[in-house]
Specification:
By secondary structure, the protein is of the alpha+beta class. Strands 4, 5, 6, 12, 13, 14, 15, 16 and 17 form a 9-stranded mixed sheet that branches. A hairpin with a 4-residue loop joins strand 35 and strand 36. The N and C termini lie far apart (about 70 Å). Bound molecules: flavin-adenine dinucleotide. The site of flavin-adenine dinucleotide (FAD) has 41 residues, from helix 1, strand 12, strand 17 and helix 9.
């Protein structure tokens, strides 16, 4: 075995083989994949092999679309059969909410270029005459879907990897991984050691154990899932085409398809889901299956037989009950591991046959080019921190399994296993009706249920029952003063004699030269696309305070620590949990704050976009005069223990001014009115010129990471531009990812949207072809699959001159 390689991939399932193939195709062919047994002998070989275009998540839709294309072409490329059955599929809707889901999926999928349609019961019956359609309203028909032989697919990818120069080693277990002083990794195997630059954990159900070797606690739990195969179905013997796969989320909670001339029924039971190997997968496990547990799946299995009576009297000739990896939110762990350089995750995949090809492609892009062409935020392993302990991992994985065939409502509030991270105001705000959401473990108020309203979240693809409550919160902020607990912010102190020059190299804007200055800026990668948006406040001669979105906490921490030069005199301190954050915003905010601090707050003494340490209710508070809602206001970064005292004092002072709580839904509505971009606009897919935020970039300040690429993007042709628009919506606003049209032609997609309650307009941001970006351009948007007229706006619909925050 060779002693050195650029990359070592541990694990030869669909995820590892796909990554090896795509890395080799990207030119990183000095890549060694090591598998402890036969390729595919983990979860891959026993998968049912389905892959569908019925996906409403934009990134996953891209992955599935790519996967189907690859499965259609790789056989020819490698001469290894993958047996793609292009039978199409049907996803059924019995209720209006399910129909909304299908329509939303259409709104996304058509933009990605998928062949799909919503059809009624008559047409469904023509495609699938054996399904009992009682109660079915419609189905999403995706004719290009199908299923593959999963082992064949992984073998083809492995062969393709070899054909492009990669090495695949079987029957050799990796027994340890160690970090070397050189920054490289030592991979210890049964057949010797390999030193490499990059190591990838593609260990499937073993991935958590592999992570433990290097100090990681990867949030992966193994759930078990069944499918059964019936005896031969006499009716199928007559068929010369294969029936489409049926996904019946409501009654079957799973899928039914033909497996040659038999029926195949897969069930995701909606009660008592089963975990396995919680303390570690036995190393000797190979092609492991479990005894079927019919009691667990029987209610849904019975429904399946009732829905497809031709299967009802047949025996079951084979049952497959195997393990699948589930991270807490069900998305893969795809990207850099937290805290480690060049240690990558390619694991935690619950539908790896569908996701594997795309996962390999986009992770390879990230590793080779520093970024991928799709937004990787939802897959980034650094979205989990120590808050995701083993109890949380297991509870959330079980919840995720149960949700597999539930409607993926926008903002679906997954409540199991919470709270794990709360600010010291949690109880107070809960008593006042806060409906919390979870973000990087933190509980963040989403909206406040008024007296008399049920204190639980409501979900819909349309305007939900919280709509009026959010409207009232927006009015409180715009007319008087609102207060919000935004403690989840990522917060980092950067200090030391070289802090200024270091940060100037890290970000695109010029960092403040004077103490008290604040800038909004972006961390870019070498490709010039956005890693994070960060507020930088200079709080001392050689001290800066960085605040940014909660989910970027570990990403920004790692970025800064890993880009520090040897010997550079800079300290990076993560203070995210030391400080809470209270947002005080609205025309009366100065009147309120003035009553609880001696610090002068007039425009002369405390300018817009400046920071001071002030005393509030006896606490030393980092006060930043900024406002994401576009009002006069402050962000008060308060030592966590002092949050209750500060909140109480502000509330007491504010009562005479009409103070009220607000949550993230109102925050989103108001930032849209102000035309402020958010996390969905500022992603690893786009450069600053594409995002139209060059006013936050100083090209003349000297070099910084991503500068050359930014210049190139500014001077060259851009694939898209971010535009701000209003939409003639009905009772549903844009959720993100909907297709945008110009004169009937697809020209882009929505990045985020919502309703501006103060201005009474539906608003959104979208990425569109640059020739459609001119203000006044008439566009249309597929909102729940209905085209709605939209216009590109020249300026924010609220306070375009930004007079209010400066008042
Ligand atoms: C019943 C069932 C049906 C399914 N149906 C579908 C479906 O229809 N569509 C779909 O998309 N997905 C389906 N899945 C899910 C799919 O099987 C998994 O998501 C996928 O196989 C995961 O692939 P992987 O590469 O991450 O893991 P694995 O296939 O488990 O690969 C990991 C590999 O790493 C190796 N390894 C681990 N540790 C080491 C080590 N220390 N040294 C060397 N090698 C090591 C293992 O031996 C293993 O081969 C199904 C799963 C089940 C259980």
């Amino acid at each position: 075995m060779q002693s050195h390689a650029k990359i070592v991939i541990v694990g030869g399932g669909i995820m590892g083989t796909s990554l090896a193939y795509h890395l080799a195709r990207e030119g990183w062919s000095d890549c060694v994949l090591i598998e402890k047994a036969e390729l595919t002998s983990g979860s891959t070989w026993h998968a049912a092999g389905q892959i569908s275009h019925s996906v409403s998540h934009f990134g996953l839709a891209k992955m599935n679309g790519y996967g189907i294309d690859l499965y259609n072409s790789i056989e020819q490329e490698t001469e290894q059969s993958v047996t793609f059955h292009g039978c199409g599929s049907l996803r059924l809707a019995y209720t209006d909410d399910e129909l909304d889901w299908l329509n939303y999926t259409m709104s996304v999928g058509l933009g990605v270029g998928f062949n799909m349609d919503i059809i009624g019961p008559d047409e469904i019956a023509k495609l699938h005459p054996y399904y009992n359609l009682d109660g079915v309203k419609a189905a999403l028909h995706t004719p290009d879907d199908g299923h593959v032989d999963p082992a064949g697919a992984a073998f083809a990818l492995a062969k393709g990897a070899r054909m492009n120069g990669a090495t695949v080693i079987r029957h050799n277990r990796v027994t340890g991984i160690e970090a070397l002083a050189s920054g490289e990794w030592k991979v210890i195997t049964e057949q010797g050691e390999i030193t490499c630059e990059h190591v990838v954990n593609a260990g499937g159900t073993y991935a958590r154990q592999i992570g433990q070797w290097v100090g990681l606690d990867l949030p992966i739990t193994n759930m078990t899932h069944h499918y059964v195969i019936t005896d031969t179905v006499p009716e199928f013997l007559e068929l010369d085409t294969e029936l489409p796969v049926v996904r019946d989320d409501r009654l079957v909670s799973g899928y039914i398809r033909m497996e040659q001339k038999s029926g195949l029924i897969g069930i995701y039971e909606k009660a008592n889901p089963n975990t396995v190997w919680d303390d570690g997968t036995p190393w000797e496990a190979e092609n492991e299956l479990f005894e079927p547990d019919y009691d667990r799946i029987s209610p849904w299995l019975e429904n399946a037989l009732e829905r497809m009576p031709i299967l009802a009297e047949l025996g079951i000739k084979r049952s497959v009950h195997g393990a699948i990896t589930h991270p807490p939110d069900g998305n893969m762990l795809l990207g850099p591991a937290p805290g480690l350089k060049n240690f990558w995750c390619c694991c935690g995949s619950q539908i790896g046959i569908a996701w594997g090809p795309g996962a390999g492609k986009y992770l390879a892009q990230w590793m080779v080019h520093g970024t991928a062409e799709i937004n990787m935020r939802d897959f980034d392993p650094r979205r989990y921190g120590p808050f995701a302990d083993r109890d949380y991992q297991i509870v959330k994985a079980r919840e995720d399994y149960l949700l597999r065939h539930e409607i993926p409502f926008p903002g679906l509030n997954r409540t199991d296993g919470r709270p794990v991270k709360t600010s010291t105001l949690y109880g107070r705000l809960k008593d006042q009706g806060a409906i919390y959401e979870e973000i990087f473990g933190w509980e963040r108020p989403r909206w406040f249920a008024p007296e008399g309203m049920a204190r639980e979240d409501a979900h819909s693809f349309r305007r939900a029952p919280w709509f009026d409550a959010v409207a009232r919160e927006c009015h409180t902020v715009r007319e008087a003063v609102g207060i919000m607990d935004l403690s989840g912010f990522g917060k980092i102190d950067v200090s030391g004699p070289e802090a200024e020059s270091f940060l100037d190299r890290m970000v695109a804007n010029r960092v403040p030269r004077k103490t008290g200055g604040i800038v909004l800026t972006h961390i870019l990668n070498e490709a010039g696309t956005i890693e994070a948006e960060v507020t930088v406040a200079r709080i001392g001669d050689d001290r800066f305070y960085l605040a940014f979105a909660a989910f970027s906490e570990l990403k920004v921490r790692d970025w800064l620590t890993q880009h520090r030069n040897d010997g550079e005199d800079v300290t990076v301190g993560n203070v995210s949990e030391d400080f809470g954050c209270l947002v005080l915003s609205g025309p009366r905010s100065r009147d309120v704050l003035r009553q609880v601090t001696q610090a002068p707050l007039d425009n002369e003494s405390f300018r817009w976009l400046s920071a001071r340490t002030i005393e509030v209710a006896g606490a030393k508070v980092r006060a930043l005069r900024v406002s994401y809602v576009g009002e006069l206001g402050w962000e008060l970064h308060v030592p966590m223990a002092d949050m209750p005292a500060v909140y109480d004092a502000l509330w007491a002072a504010g009562e005479a001014h009409g103070i009220g709580n607000f949550g993230s839904y109102a925050l989103n509505a108001m930032r849209l009115e102000k035309g402020f971009k958010g996390a969905s606009e500022l992603t690893n897919e786009v450069t600053l010129p594409e995002a139209d935020v060059m006013r936050f970039c100083k090209l003349d300040k000297g070099d910084f990471i991503g500068r050359d690429a930014t210049v190139k993007s500014q001077e060259g042709e851009r694939p898209w531009t971010c535009v701000y628009m209003d939409i003639d919506a009905d009772d549903a606003d844009c959720l993100g990812s909907e297709t945008v049209y110009h004169n009937g032609r697809r020209v882009g997609a929505i990045s985020s949207g919502g309703y501006g309650h103060w201005v009474g307009r539906s608003l959104a941001f979208a990425y569109v072809e640059p020739q459609c970006a001119k203000p006044g351009t008439e566009l249309s948007v597929a909102v729940l699959n209905t085209r709605r007229a939209a216009r590109v706006l020249a300026e924010p619909v609220y306070d375009p001159a930004s007079e209010k925050p400066r008042s």
